[in-house]
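Fill in residues.
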């Protein structure tokens, strides 16, 4: 009997892990998602338990390999992507000794101020290509060293989200190059750990795993992992990479100037570059595609904002969705689309959990401006979508000022399914937006890393040509662009006017 090839992509996201098996042509054979909790033990603390990631992955892999669609199919390779800025401390036995503070965690604010005063922001940026902010990995590690010294002294290695799953699958301790940017002792120009910066931060180089290319085969599924996951032992596993970088690959962003727009839990953009271009207001990292960087803008507001609006204000839309056989987001889009561009003067700052780039203010707050008695829930919905799109434009403009020019955007994430939201983003940014047919861009990107790593594709050009197809294209509507140019100026002015209030309280 002829066996067909497949690739497995594993995505360790903020709210769930998503797994998908793909044919070599990018067709999804089966996809599975498993949720896990997020913990908020103290103000500014946001944690997850990596062992719960692993348990969710095991549940998902069992569902995949036992599904009839996978009969007569051989998984040729596994790629894993993960959320950025994790800090997973493991001991010599591989046990996690402290919950992972995820990318939303801001407990290290004071640590950042102390370190910047001692070492200097300029010195840190010169080597790492990134500002020293509390949401990154290293400040969280330094916080642990200062506040939990007994736990810190147990640490053998510090892992990222994808490298932890690689470890559980293979027993190999690794660090992929695309996740290096979370540690400010990573030399962004050289793609290697900096012993000089380790010394300045007071961190032993021994805590940092060996760095691998993202498509490099680092191990195989072990017998013990096979028993837990039902995956066949011996399947090659590549190092994997950052979720945003794998998402960029999964929509076809592999060459200089190509740009991915990500509308998931948070909004973001990733510009592929073949040269080093850094700006302290943005995020600089390596792409999962070799010899390329990604200049990124990552905001807090995104799909999470739309979910918050839905869960707290859209009971009627949820009811209508049940009646019409649609979903709440579709019903919300209908309300949004009933209003003109600009939401009749309502503007929203999407800073619902502080804000990352480009303002880097952990105390920033969400704000609706322009409400009066004539305004309705529709205004709240559309203004929320526009506010998220304004935050995207803000990052794009900073990037272009830094020398990273963007002609068009390749979209991924949940918001890519909304035609209304996509048109708003196109109008506000003034960019053409292309939406690939795959709704699983991040897991596809992880799978493509494995495909290149095991030789299923000769290179990334071949991988893209075989797997990625454009489903929809959005062009800016001229009259809307004019409205939004004025709205964007108000958006910026609104934050400038309120910035002095968005500071630590008490």
């Amino acid at each position: 009997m002829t066996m067909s090839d497949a690739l497995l992509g594993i995505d360790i996201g903020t709210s769930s892990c998503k797994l998908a098996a793909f044919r070599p042509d990018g067709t999804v054979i089966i996809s599975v998602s498993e949720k896990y909790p997020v913990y908020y033990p103290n103000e500014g603390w946001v944690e997850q338990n990596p062992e719960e990631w692993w348990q969710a992955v095991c549940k998902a892999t069992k569902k995949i390999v036992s599904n009839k669609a996978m009969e007569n199919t051989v998984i040729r390779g596994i790629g894993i992507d993960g959320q950025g800025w994790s800090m997973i401390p493991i001991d010599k036995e591989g046990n996690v000794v402290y919950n992972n503070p995820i990318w939303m965690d801001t407990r290290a604010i004071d640590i950042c101020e102390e370190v910047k005063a001692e070492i200097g922001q300029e010195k840190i940026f010169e080597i790492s290509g990134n500002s020293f902010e509390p949401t990154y990995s290293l400040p969280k590690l330094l916080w642990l060293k200062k506040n939990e010294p007994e736990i810190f002294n147990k640490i053998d290695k510090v892992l990222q989200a994808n490298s932890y799953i690689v470890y559980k699958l293979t027993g190999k301790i690794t660090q992929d190059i695309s996740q290096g940017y979370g540690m400010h002792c990573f030399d962004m120009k050289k793609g290697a750990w900096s012993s000089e910066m380790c010394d300045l931060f007071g961190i032993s180089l021994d805590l940092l795993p060996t760095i691998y290319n993202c498509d490099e085969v680092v191990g195989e599924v072990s017998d013990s992992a096979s028993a837990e996951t039902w995956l066949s032992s011996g399947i090659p596993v590549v190092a994997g990479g950052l979720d945003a970088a794998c998402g960029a690959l999964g929509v076809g962003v592999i060459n200089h100037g190509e740009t991915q727009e990500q509308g998931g839990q948070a909004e973001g953009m990733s510009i592929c570059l073949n040269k080093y271009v850094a700006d302290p207001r943005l995020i600089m990292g390596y792409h999962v595609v070799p010899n390329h960087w990604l200049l990124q803008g990552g905001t807090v507001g995104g799909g999470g904002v739309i979910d918050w609006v839905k869960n707290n204000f859209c009971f009627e839309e949820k009811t209508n969705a049940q009646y019409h056989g649609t979903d709440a987001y579709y019903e919300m889009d209908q309300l949004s689309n009933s209003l003109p561009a600009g939401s009749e003067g309502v503007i929203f700052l999407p800073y619902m959990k502080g804000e990352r780039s480009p303002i880097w203010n952990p105390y920033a707050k969400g704000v609706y401006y322009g409400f009066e008695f004539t305004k309705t829930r529709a205004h709240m919905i559309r203004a929320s979508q526009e506010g998220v799109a304004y935050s995207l434009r803000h990052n794009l403009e900073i990037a272009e000022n830094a020398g990273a020019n963007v002609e068009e955007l390749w979209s991924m994430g949940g918001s890519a399914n909304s035609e209304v939201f996509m048109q708003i983003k196109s109008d506000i940014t003034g960019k053409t937006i292309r939406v690939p047919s795959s709704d699983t861009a991040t897991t596809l990107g992880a799978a493509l890393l494995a495909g290149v790593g095991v030789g299923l594709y000769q290179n990334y050009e071949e991988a893209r040509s075989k797997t990625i197809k454009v489903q929809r294209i959005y062009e800016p509507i001229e009259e809307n662009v004019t409205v939004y140019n004025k709205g964007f100026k108000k958006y910026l002015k609104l934050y400038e006017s309120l910035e002095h209030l968005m500071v630590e309280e008490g």
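The mean pLDDT is 96.
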